[in-house]
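for the writeup, i need someone to sanity check this before i put it in the appendix. the sequnce is what the collaborator sent (i think, or maybe the updated version? ugh). structure was predicted straight from it, no edits. if anything looks off just tell me and ill rerun, i have time this weekend
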Amino acid sequence: MEVIQTNIKGVVIIEPRLFKDDRGYFFESYSERDFNKQVGEVHFVQDNESKSSYGVMRGLHFQRPPFTQSKLVRCVKGAVLDVAVDIRKGSPTYGQHVAVELTEDNHRQFFIPRGFAHGFAVLSPEAIFQYKCDNFYHPEADGGISILDTSLGIDWRIPTEHAILSEKDTKHPLLKDFDSPFEFGPF
């Protein structure tokens, strides 16, 4: 696997090594040994999958301490624009984001460490999205910032009139009105 550093330390894009022949392809989608060696020591405990149609936007979500989560995400069918926003108080990159297109063809994965809000927009007619989490989901720890906050400067590549959001996701605060529960520190 190749690890691509982004403009925010700790947030990385992973390109697996693909083996193709006339039968199709094969790749290792996850190796704990390689991940821990090249990205960092993370112990994933839960895998999730969602299916969405074009225009669905999910996020920007996080889990509050002590139930914070790192995520390793990928799109196994279709295409999504996936985004991580730094919400760590005191971070030199606070409020900045990294966006990456994840598709069934590029097989890229995106690692979002703890202290980041995460969201995605579906760019294809349908998308199946998978992610690993390093902590179990706790509904009482749900948090979010508005996925439509224009101050974040995210080009979601979905016209506003085609955006489909859950009721919950329309109620998250803007970044300027948000009191982050995360402190900047080493990963």
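The chain is about 5% helix and 40% strand. The two ends are 21 Å apart (CA to CA).
thx in advance!!
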